[in-house]
Input
Amino acid sequence: MLKHTIEVSLADTSKPVLLKGDVKKTVVYDEAGSIYGDAKASDVRVGKTFTSSNGVKITGTLVTSEVKYGTITGKGMNSQAIETGLSNVSRFIMARKFPSSNAKHGILALVYKDGKLSGIAGFIGAGYNSVDNHSIGTVAINKGTITYTPKADEDMSALTEGDTYDWIAINE
Output
């Protein structure tokens, strides 16, 4: 419950009868705090404000994300552009779907997060290698378009031609 105290006074003190004998009167009343809602700062989007259950104005802290996903077909050593449909991309994941048995090399998975790219590359006879920015190629992000470019002359960083890759893009 919230308790409110207000003081009421007459504009025309020559007519105090309205307050039964005085020109000022204090009024106290209670109301349910739930009329302001029960949201916490973490329930309300960043930059928006609301009134707490105590009647205090609070700015929200909730960060929301947009997620899009799809598939592409690998183009070998050629750059691969992906139109995500997002206004911006902060994180990106791509993984080869059911790698073909005849592929000698190629990226199995890529992860782009906080400006860094890492991945897993596979090649026949030697298993899988975890690779980092230096040997995997590059990701360029222009608003909602992601372009992956394999490292020059490095089959291991290629997107295996003809193989299907699933991707997920996130805008936070």
Remarks:
- The longest strand covers residues 2-9.
